[in-house]
Amino acid sequence: MIHVQKLGKRYGECWALQDMTFEVRAGEFVGILGRNGAGKTTLVRILTGQLAPTTGEAEILGLSVAARPLELRRRIGVMPEPTALLDGLTGAQYLHFVGRIHGLAPMVLDTRIGELGDLLELDFRSPARIGDYSVGMKKKVALCAAVLHAPELLFLDEPFEGLDPVSAETLRGLLESLRDHGATILMTSHLLGT
Fold first, then answer.
1. Among residues 32, 50, 16, which one has the least CA distance to residue 158?
2. Phi, psi of 66 (to 5 degrees)
3. Could you tell me which of 2, 115, 138, 165 has the fewest CB atoms within 10 Å of its CB?
4. What are 155's strand-pairing partners?
5. Alpha-carbon separation of residue 76 from 61, 73, 102, 160, 184 (angstroms)
6. Could you tell me the pTM of the whole model?
7. pLDDT in tens, 104-114
8. 11-49 pLDDT, tens digit each
């Protein structure tokens, strides 16, 4: 599912990531733990085709990340930092935007957005803009966007950061359910308890 060989990223003289080699098999839930600044987000950005590595290779779902990033992005889900959301849209507008990019039909989207809203206790009928959401609500919208198209592989970058205990428990339950239904998940965190 994920094959990483001697992956590295250098900015000037500083290595953000160096000589990383690992493998993740289908159906696994893998956590990458490290302090802030350890290169976790850099790794996720490389593996999702957003950033080119300085050294090494990565293959995801049998595709070279460097050679086939667009095809890869159609098959994976990525939970970005909440700052990557479009603050001027409502949660529903943002999810419709993301769903259409993935080619989901409007009726399928409406059903899926309703299901995810119920599961994560989000009211997508609200006219509030994402820019006015709490950190926890933004995290939930980002997760909804990542799983909207039922990807085979899910990348989560610091998903528990800034969540209250109830939201964190809801998120943990959703991730376990996704794993139990066959999704492969790679998650980064600097929090040992997650």
1. 32
2. -70, -40
3. 165
4. 78, 186
5. 9, 5, 10, 20, 10
6. 0.85
7. 999 999 999 99
8. 999 999 999 999 999 999 999 988 888 888 899 999 998
